[in-house]
Write a sequence for this structure.
């Protein structure tokens, strides 16, 4: 791949690729990363410098080494970062959050990508303490967010589900009942205008329902394939959703139906 081809990738996508490589190799040199990503060594050095500034890697002579347990997360979360659709959803959803806001996030590949895009926003990086608060029941999101000096991370307690890294149960519910959120960014298994947002497991749905109930705004992040579908457990009706960020076409029937229910739909 040429530098020109590699140059079409966003910095965030390149950084995710670097972290993916570190997850399996432990350390990277400028030369091998340049070869793997198909970009110039100068670009790699700039990326290494930025990742080190964000405390996600440690610089050493000629490269970087892994410094965080986040690199041991399941492959499906790391691999999702190369999905252009998820990247587009994540970037647009992250842009909806303002400085100083308290954001609730549940688990999943799209919310994980959104959390990364959100915590990578340069305009939210301050020098006088946290400028953003993330509250999550997803262990993987918490493990990455806690590394950001400008982020205050609140991780909910409970019983962890291996499939999603989400914690559920009464401990999580008790904590949420003591908090208020500016915005809940919610990943779902299905969404329809008639049946609302749903997921496969009732215990996960219960936690997300509480997040939704205690949030001023609700942003659902969902790929086109999830629209018009229904799964087992209800999260909330469509009318409770303020904004949907999706890869669906702007004139898709379900997009039209959701807009008729008052949902702002952003097609990316």
């Amino acid at each position: 791949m040429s530098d020109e081809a590699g140059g079409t990738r966003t910095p965030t996508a390149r950084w995710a690729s670097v972290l993916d490589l570190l997850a399996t190799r432990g350390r990277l040199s400028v030369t091998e990363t340049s070869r793997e990503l198909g970009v110039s060594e100068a670009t790699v050095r700039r990326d290494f410098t930025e990742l080190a500034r964000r405390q996600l890697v440690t610089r050493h002579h000629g490269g970087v080494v892994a410094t965080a347990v986040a690199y041991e997360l399941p492959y499906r979360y790391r691999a999702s970062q190369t999905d252009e659709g998820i990247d587009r959803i994540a970037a647009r959803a992250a842009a909806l959050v303002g400085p100083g806001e308290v954001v609730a996030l549940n688990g999943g590949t799209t919310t994980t990508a959104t959390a990364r895009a959100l915590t990578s926003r340069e305009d939210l990086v301050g020098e006088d303490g946290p400028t953003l608060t993330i509250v999550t029941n997803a262990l993987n999101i918490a493990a990455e967010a806690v590394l950001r000096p400008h982020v205050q991370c609140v991780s909910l307690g409970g019983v962890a589900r291996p499939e999603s890294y989400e914690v559920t149960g009464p401990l999580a519910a008790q904590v949420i009942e003591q908090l208020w959120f500016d915005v809940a960014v919610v990943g779902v298994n299905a969404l329809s205008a008639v049946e609302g947002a749903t997921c496969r497991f009732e215990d996960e749905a219960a936690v997300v329902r509480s997040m939704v109930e205690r949030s001023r705004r609700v942003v659902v992040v969902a790929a086109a394939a999830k629209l018009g579908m229904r799964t087992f457990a209800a999260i909330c009706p469509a009318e409770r959703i303020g904004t949907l960020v999706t890869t669906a076409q702007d004139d898709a029937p379900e997009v039209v139906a959701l807009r008729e229910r008052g949902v702002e739909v952003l097609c990316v």
Remarks:
- Confidence is low (pLDDT under 50) at residues 1-8, 69-82.
- The chain has two domains: 3-72, 75-267.
